[in-house]
Structures
1.
Amino acid sequence: MFETAFTPFQSLGGGALIGLGAVLLMLGLGRIFGATGIMSGLVFFENREELSWRVALVIGMILAPVLLFAVTGSMPALTIPVSPAMIVVGGVIVGLGASLGSGCTSGHGVCGLSRLSIRSLVAVPTFMATAAITVFLIRHVFGG
């Protein structure tokens, strides 16, 4: 069975950096840090003025492991217990869910809750409950 590692310090550091990035984006450009919205704005861009900061954010997300390697000398260990096809299917499902929910977990959870958005106050518990049910089903019912 696949177990999730308990990494409180790395998780706290990552959460703090995500929060800092969200605050800086809001202060600097007045924009919400929702990863799905940022990617959607790149794929279906309508405003050329927003293209540069969206590209910079995505490049930063891609280069973060390279920076980690430069600092620590090793890459993060990844274990992905599903096939590439399942990753694609999961990505499509997440994209559809983010579209239906008018935002993703980062947009609602980090930015929406901090702005006391009613929509986010409904969306985040829905995400959490769905995640808990999914993990329970996969690990205890389907034996994954």
2.
Amino acid sequence: MNTIPAQEIKRRGIAAVDALIAQGDVHIIRNNQPQYVVVSESRYKELIEAQAEAYVLRVRASLEDLRAGKVKRGTADDLIKELSLED
């Protein structure tokens, strides 16, 4: 894991990140805790694409469950009663 203190970025600017980002994601440490992650544009696009693909897969799985009859239909009141959220 590449890390850099926030103070170093304040002192040197983005040049402090340039060398590290070539090696992978950069974690910025603030108050002795990881606070931020800097990623390259290509890595960011990969993450967004993976998130979108995962969303589509979850929706497809839900639709398959619906078609297979694994999903109960009802009202919000029915769900609350089933979950025993009312006294």
3.
Amino acid sequence: MKVKTRFAPSPTGYLHVGGARTALYSWLYARHAQGTFVLRIEDTDLERSTPEAIEAIMDGMNWLQLSWDEGPFFQTKRFDRYNQVIDNMLEKGTAYRCYCSKERLETMREAQMARGEKTRYDGHCRCDAVQKAHHADEPSVVRFANPQEGSVIFKDIIRGPIEIANKELDDLIIRRTDGSPTYNFCVVVDDWDMEITHVIRGEDHINNTPRQINILKALDAPVPQYGHVSMILGDDGQKLSKRHGAVSVMQYRDDGYLPEALLNYLVRLGWSHGDQEIFSVEEMMNYFSLEGVSKSASAFNTEKLLWLNHHYINHAGADYVASHLMWHMNQQGYDLDKGPDLITIVKLFAERCKTLKEMAESCRYCYEDFEQFDEEAAKKHLRPVARQPLERVRDKLAAIDALSWSTENIHHAIQSSADELEIGMGKVGMPLRVAVTGIGQSPSVDATVFAIGQARSLKRIEMALSYIQERESAAN
């Protein structure tokens, strides 16, 4: 049997990280088995489904590089198929028309609650007498004739055997009065038609599974294997929500994470392979199994995700990281022709920055001039005593031929200035750093000066010397 999985989000909002983990597990299971992965958009909720949400889901899947083999399929384009199946079920007697008014249903529910019973449809229209008393063209919904005896038993791949008594399940509506089919029914027909072998989804769908199995059996359709993954909690033990930070996949892109970091984090959020923490996508595909997925809820830890992101920024390859950095640089509005190439930026800042957004913000002085120095840094390092070191290193930097502008020659200029003045290298390097960046912290000063460029560095050193002169004049 060839494995075929699906990811079937409802387009009522962005792609949530919980949905992304479900998509990842389904994708990995299919890839591990050399099977097929299907993307299906379950847009039967016509009031809440939006084109913007569909686009957000597709953007999230594409950014995570979770490519699908079939689809995307849209349920709203398959209504004729669903209604054809429902009409066949009406003929076979596995479904029936329900003419109950809203008033009757409300009265029924109130009585059940008053008796302390679970609210469920009482099967009033299921009998032949009621059916004969009405005409088929009267307003009605269509209900599935759920078995009234026995139980639904299925072996959840993750959770083990689950049994639900049929008496706990009512005759759910499969077609509304307006003729539109309902979610639970559409899912069944889709899984049947698309030959889905394994359904991997969140634990909130466990209650839907016995209903869907009963419908599949009524259709004489094969029943897939089911696996229900636990929810993701915030670090406070509550269900993950916006108050815990980003929950949208694309928000993580906006916040400066690499897709590999988020995938690596999500795969470990409920699954393990020994003590290994870092997984390439190829390793995920090779090692993944549903049997290795935990039944317990997982807590989201942003610090762990940041650690992973920092790892990938430093190990994914500077050219690849630069391709993702480009979006963040554009968000900052930089003119990239006025500074170093992005591969240089990645190599310069990778050790210092945990996110690409932080990297884009930190390298501003490489692309834009500044009008004033950071007050604290200038007060500490741009003092009169720094005049001579800055003048000496300025002259040496100016003497470097344009074709010989390199970190090695810049380092030599700094070192020789310190040696000639018989001072520590920091006495030259720190004033130079503040002079060319405007702030007190940066990557190595020689690499920073190289990235900023010769002409711009010399101009800023002159600006720093003027600042020192002004301080001296003010002191006198």
4.
Amino acid sequence: LEHIDHDDWRNVLGTNLDGVFHLCKAVIPTMKSRREGVIINMASVAATDGYPMACAYATSKSALIGLTKSLAKELATYNVRVNAIMPSLTMTDAALGLPAETLERLVNLVPLGRIALPEDIAGVEFFLSSPDANYITGELFRVAGGR
């Protein structure tokens, strides 16, 4: 927290929280009028675990969980389901940009012995958007290899 300035703080919250807010504001009226829809928010294990030197990120993802749970309750009577996925470190360009020793340390924290692949997350997204998940709303799905 001591090393982040206000502009960086706002940028992280703007990206991770405000972006979702504006997207939801745009799609919810149509979902309500159709009386169906699915919103899947991308939170993070950082929301509940916290990450050192990533206070803004963890805070933004925690707030996203609050938004997810609130919207799930607001929209349930319209048959609009809202859930969130909470992945741990996932093999993305950002992960590949980490120093090798940092990446190795993070992998060692995962009982499955690897970081998530994008398809690990996509499988959960596919399930949540399918008819098989018609009775699931307001839930958090931790995809973290046992971490």
